[in-house]
Each structure stands twice: as C-alpha cells, then as structure tokens.
Amino acid sequence: MEKILQVKNLELSFNTQAGEVKAIRGVNFDLNKGETLAIVGESGSGKSVTTKSIMRLLPEQSAEFKNGEILFGGRDLTKLSDKEMQKIRGKEISMIFQDPMTSLNPTMPIGRQLTEPLLKHQKISKTEAKKVAIDLLRLVGMPKPELRMKQYPHQFSGGQRQRIVIAISLACNPKILIADEPTTALDVTIQAQILELMKDLQKKIDTSIIFITHDLGVVANVADRVAVMYGGKIVEIGTVDDVFYNPQHPYTWGLLSSMPSLDTEDAKLYAIPGTPPDLLDPPKGDAFALRSEYALKIDMEQNPPFFKVSETHSAATWLLHPDAPQVEPPLTVIERMKKFPGSRYYEGGAV
Amino acid sequence: MAEKLLEIKNLKQYFNIGKANEVRAVDDISFDIYRGETLGLVGESGCGKSTTGRSIIRLYDATDGDVFYEGENVHGKKSKQDLKKFNRKMQMIFQDPYASLNQRMKVMDIIAEGIDIHGLAKNQTERKKMVYDLLETVGLNKEHANRYPHEFSGGQRQRLGIARALAVDPDFIIADEPISALDVSIQAQVVNLLKELQVEKGLTFLFIAHDLSMVKYISDRIGVMYFGKLVELAPAEELYKNPLHPYTQSLLSAIPLPDPNYERNRVRKSYDPAVHEYTKADDVRMREISPGHFVQCSERELESIKAAAVN
To answer: Among A235, A256, A275, which residue's Cα sits nearest to residue A25?
Structure first.
C-alpha cells in the first residue's frame, strides 16, 4: 500500500506564560492512499494539534516543533518555508473545520470563495474557474448551483454550508483531506448526509482522509483505520475492526464503555473517572494510569512502548507485555471481543 | 408514577406574529409530565424542542395554550410573588456552561444567587454551608467556591450549572442539551450525576437533546418533535423498538452506532412529509396506538399504523 503521509516521532510544544505545554509527545502514524484514518480522543488529547501541525496552521510565536518529521511527497513539512507551505495548503492538503459559519467568509458570495483556490493554485481563467466551481457545487449535491453562486453564506442552512466548505476543499483535487469534526455541529440526519457525501466523493476522486472526531458512532461509520489519542500520544492504532472489536488499551475500553448503545440496559453508565492530564506537567509513565483501574506499578514509572497485537494493530500499554498479569476487560468490551476472530473471548461467527 | 406534575395543553409559541416572516416554533402540542420521571424531547435543530422548554418555564410568553404545574396555570396572570414561587420549583440547566455562568462572579455567588433571591439562608454562615453542600452534591469540593468559572473545565462548569439549579431545591428541572458540549467520557459522568440526583431528591426532568442514544439511556418516555409538532410520544424502550411515525423511523436510522458491523449494514431511511398526503379535511392529531404510545396521524392512517404496531 502506498504511504502518502508519514508522521514520525512528532513532538510539539506550546510556549505559554505558565510554561511549556507538551501538546504532542511522540506521535507516529502513516496515512495510506485512499484510506480514511480516524483520530479519536477527548478535547486536549492533541488530535486537532496534530493535524494543524501537518497543515502548519499553529501560531509560530508559541508553537515549536521539538522533534520528529512529517513526510509528504518526499519532503519534511516541518522544515518548509511559509511560501512553500502556501503551495501545499488548499492544493495538496486541504482542511474542513467544525463550524462552517466561521470558516466561510460572511461578506463574500460563495462563488468567489469557491473560485479563490482555483485561481490561486491553477492556471485557469476566471470563466473556467466559475465553470469548475459550478460543477463542484453540483458534485456536493447543491440544487441550482448557477443561481446559488451569487449568494452569501447566511443564505444557506448549516448542512448546505458544510457542503460548500467540502466543495472548496476539494476544488484542487487534494491528495489529503483533513476533516476536523466536520459533522459535530450538525443534526443527525444532516450528519448522515454529509458522511455519505464524503464517502461517495472519496471513491470518485481517490483522496485520503484524516477524520477527527470524538463520536465513536461516526468513526465506526467512516473509518478504515482508527488512532486513539490520549494525553498527546497515540495509545492504540489499528483497523476499525481491531479497535472496536479487539481493543487493548484501558483508555479505549473506557471510551467504548462510556457510550450507551441503543440496547444498554438501565445499569449505570461507565464513566472514566477524573479529568485528562495536565500537559504542562505530563505524568511520567502512562498518562492514563491515574484514571485507570488497570494501572500496573510500572505504568506510574515508565512510558509503555507500542506492542504489536497483529500486523495491523498495536497498542501502547504495559498490559500487553509478556510478563504482565492477564486482566479482564470490562463486560461491554468482552461482549465486543466475542465477535472478533483472534481475540481470546472469540465465540465463533464472523465479523 | 401516575401523578401528573405538569400538563401542557395545546401550547403554541409563534414569533413575528402577523408579519410575513411568522415562525410557528411550537405549534399546538400537548403532553403530560409525571412526577419523578424523565421525559426526553428529541428532534433536529429548529424543530422547537428548546422553545418548548423555554415556554414551559415562561422564558417566553406563550402565544396560546396552557401549562399547568400541579394544577396551576404557569401562564396565567401572576403577581411577582407568585412568579417567584414558580421559579423556585422549576429550574433550568443550559447547554453551554461557558455562556450560562457569569464570568465576573465567583462560584460562591453564582450558586448562592438563587438562595439570596428567595431568602433561603438566614445568615452568611448558613449561606456558605449551603453552597459547600451543593458543591459536594455535584462532585466538586468547597475549595472551588472562591474560584471564577474560567478556572474550570467544561464538565466541571456543567456541574456548577447543576449546583445552581439545585440551590433553590426545585422539583422540576428542564435540561436543555446539558451534555452536548461535553466530551464523551465527561458526558457519562454528568448523566450519571443527573440520574443519581433524580433518585436522591425525587426530581422530575425534561431532558432536551439531539443525541438519541443518550436520551434513550436517561429517559423513561420520549417525545419526538418535527417542525413545531410532536409527532410521536412513547416509553423509551417502545419508541426505539417500535417507531411508528415515518419521521421517527428516519431519525433512528440516521444515528451512527459505535459498531462497525452495524454501520456497514445500516440503511438510512429518509422522511418526506408529503407521504402523508394530508388534505384540509384530515383530522391530524395525536392518537393512542397502544397504551402510552401516541402517534400523530389522520383517521385514514390509523388502521395501517395499528397494523404495523402489532407486528
């Protein structure tokens, strides 16, 4: 499989008045061509910072690359000049944000916002750009695109605005599309439409997507692979089936158990105790240890390395060390594992 | 649970009445809320679920219709004194804990505001003690009383909002999307807290949300709203197992669940209001299909819905 983006050992800090906030503390992942990688985690886990650092959208005064590299097309994005970055942003890598009202310019008709990236990155005339823009609007399912080109963002509904943002981001056929919580502000029915649209477009133009969300339902719907982030690190990464049916990290267990499924009985919902770690002074060992009932002594002292569970799946928890005691995951997780061939609770049948 | 705490009768809330841009945010809805239960209200944004909550607590003056609280009309003519009495019994928790807490007030004063207005504390020491107790009830501690809202995380701020609502010892709480702005793991903490408080204090909740899996988890009964109308009302379990109104069916089919297998096979239904083919002659209203399960339909549709309900 062709690797389109490689993030290696990335470390990034913010220099603030209170001190150095270690927002990303050694993140490694690859993005394959044509796949959707979902990054999940709580706010403050570093998922948005990771993708913003790929786009180099962080304030230069305070954000500082400490270590590592981001390889894209043979170049290290952390080292490029602003000018070189501008040629990549919006053309090779583009981004969709959570709130379409703030990412669109309220004083500019959407037609001009659509043609802007085309005129900037491609050598085409204004009339040609307009034609492409109308085609793009049609592609994202906007009725009567010719008429709507002259309208302003406030004349569209939330779902339509997000369609426009998607159209703009796809204008130059980017190799990578980063979607930062693109459906969080939308209603479930509109969310379903936007997710269907994104999957459909991905097939048509063969782009890779990094999809950031905290909604595990959405992850199960869109992702090929999933990376779970906690305290500035990836703690588990694998295919969507690996992570949902054979999760290994106690944090992933906690996340999966704290969402009620539609058949959760009246029993008390599992809540991960405590709050996320303070990255001004990150804990020494496993960042999740303080909130975890599965924490071992070593978790407080040493940071766990990645242990391979299978070819596609690895997790950073000492529980996977050969000398670690065998623990029972929460019941809801065991229920999931029963469906996964290769897990120790497998009960037959296929996923 | 048979005792009615709240009766909402033909409630209408229109905005810009008589103008070209008249909005019928809530259009003739009726339902009851029983003492000690949690009634969930779901629907898309703009369907009128928040407006319903706000009209019930009289943040808006209803265009028409009545809200009876323990048999007394909330929207009737009231002296300031009577209104105060109502405000003590009904409280609200809002979605955005950033916006709903005054940035310039200390937690102590935010929580004690209700206590002061209603004169519930005899002196400063008692006032302090009440606030400390409330903080403890919602899982914070008394050191927090001297801080400002910005020093708290989102989940903690929502706990402050809950403590403030509890300060006047209400019977009925309207929670308007109380967990939508919170992280998944924190959502579970807040929902568990609300459930515990309900048992402990015998509270009644109107829980407004668009996250359907959480609503099902917390609610005893659920009402589904669409364009200002209540289209279906049923016990939580029944609504999910046996949705009868096509809009409810479409809403349920749109929820993504954290299960990749289910997601691969999920078929989304879309809802087109035109399928009903209502004419002016049709008497469209809520009808009881099975005990406790109400669906908005016309006389014509009743038979087919009843047939579907049996299967």
So the answer is: A235
Residues of chain B found within 8 Å of residue A312, distances taken between Cβ atoms: none
B225 contacts B212 by C-beta, under 8 angstroms: no
Rounded CA separation A32/A1 (Å):
6
User: Residue A339 and residue B261: Cβ atoms within 8 Å?
Assistant: yes
The answer to whether A232 and A279 have CB atoms below 8 angstroms apart is: yes
The Cα of A12 is separated from the nearest Cα of chain B by a number of Å equal to 23
User: Are the Cβ atoms of B260 and A240 closer than 8 angstroms?
Assistant: yes
Measured CA to CA, the distance from residue A163 to residue A161 in angstroms comes to 5
A245 to chain B: closest CA residue = B259
CB–CB of B195 and A196 under 8 A? no
pTM of the predicted model as reported, rounded to 2 decimal places:
0.85
Amino acid at A339: K
What residues form DSSP beta bridges with A180?
A212
Q: How long, in residues, is chain A?
A: 351
CB pairs under 8 A between A and B: 111
B188: nearest CB among A187, A258, A275: A258
**Nearby residues of B235 by Cβ (< 8 Å), 6 or more positions away:** B220, B221, B222, B292, B293
Closest chain A residue to B139, measured at CA? A274
Query: How do residues A307-345 score in pLDDT, each as one tens digit?
Result: 999 999 999 999 999 999 989 898 888 888 988 887 888
Tell me whether residues A258 and B260 touch, CB distance under 8 A.
Answer: no
Of A52, A152, A172, A75, the closest CA to residue A112 belongs to: A152
pLDDT, tens only, B108-155: 999 999 999 999 999 999 999 999 999 998 988 888 999 999 888 888
Which of A8, A17, A10 has the alpha carbon at shortest distance from A64? A10
CA distance B38 to B98: 25
**Residues 33-52, chain B: which have Cβ within 8 Å of A?**
44-45
Q: What does each C-alpha distance from B84 to B74, B91, B114, B119, B195 come to in angstroms?
A: 11, 12, 10, 11, 27
What sign does the CA torsion over B283, B285, B291, B293 have? positive
